Amino acid sequence: xxxxxxxxxxxxxxxxxxxxxxxxxxxxxxxxxxxxxxxxxxxxxxxxxxxxxxxxxxxxxxxxxxxxxxxxxxxxxxxxxxxxxxxxxxxxxxxxxxxxxxxxxxxxxxxxxxxxxxxxxxxxxxxxxxxxxxxxxxxxxxxxxxxxxxxxxxxxxxxxxxxxxxxxxxxxxxxxxxxxxxxxxxxxxxxxxxxxxxxxxxxxxxxxxxxxxxxxxxxxxxxxxxxxxxxxxxxxxxxxxxxxxxxxxxxxxxxxxxxxxxxxxxxxxxxxxxxxxxxxxxxxxxxxxxxxxxxxxxxxxxxxxxxxxxxxx
DNA sequence: AAGGTTTTCAACCGCAAACGG
DNA sequence: ACCGTTTGCGGTTGAAAACCT
Length: 313
Fold this sequence. Notes:
The structure is a single chain. The chain is built from 11 helices and 4 strands, in the order αααααααβαβββααα. The longest helix has 17 residues, at 102-118. The relative contact order is 0.12. It has 313 residues and is an alpha+beta fold. It has 2 domains: 13-62, Arc Repressor Mutant, subunit A (Orthogonal Bundle), CATH 1.10.10; 71-313, no CATH class. The protein starts with 18 loop residues before the first helix and ends in a 25-residue tail after the last helix. The chain has helices spanning 19-32, 41-44, 51-62, 73-86, 90-95, 102-118, 131-139, 182-191, 258-265, 275-282, 284-288; strands at 170-171, 217-226, 233-244, 247-252. A 4-stranded antiparallel sheet has the order 1-2-3-4. The chain binds a DNA duplex (21 and 21 nucleotides) through α3, α6 and α7.
């Protein structure tokens, strides 16, 4: 016995949305809201679409203040930092980037940011054309562009339900560690899709004990991420991220006591990036004393400095 | 210019969590 | 507590655009 389908597959339209469908959905929701039932919504407004499809279309494109187009360096840094800490939990990452959707961020990570970190993206490392413009032309999305602040040309904020970082990520000076263990770096880059032979180590493109003056670093002193949907709360303790076009580095000064809590309660997906954090834990003494930690032995597997706070629920 | 390849991203799929009776 | 329904999420797919040869 399979699960009942969410809609009559034979009677729903699939594929790209037409401008007519978009305007129907948009005007209805703007006037009446979703009615608390996406499944019933398409029937109400005479759309031959699955409720899930309507929801996705609204959330990703029709909703006000969706930001399309190029990601800024700061956004890159936030995405990378959070990915390192919590893995591919795109909805949580998206919550830190007003105007960006989880789908957008996921696509951006998979197609571009990952490659950027690997340092093997197209030479130009630029979109072939302005992405937003291109997509707008292709799909007619620009008709639904969010309101724009006429002074700044920026979109107006509209994320009332989205949780925000308790502590913003702030730039800081950095004299801390890098990924200075080749094995670890290899694993990361392999995970990200790189291929290596035993001989190619010298060609790897990542910073090793060398931070260029142009590199920016960010420290997350104590971030609390609260997912409104699940009431999950995560805390990232004093984690510093250094990310530029060629690679990234992480340092962490979390407290040893958290390890047990993390082990017991951590629900998030790490997507195979656990290895990144094993040494953070095993070398906690160094990190707590403010020294760079070594990425030597990988004997202790643990989890990143994130706290899942279920106790208060 | 044409054809092939790569890249991008909107949309779909299926699973798990949340919700409500 | 149970069960059916709905929602939310992340992975994957495929069409179209961009790029390469």
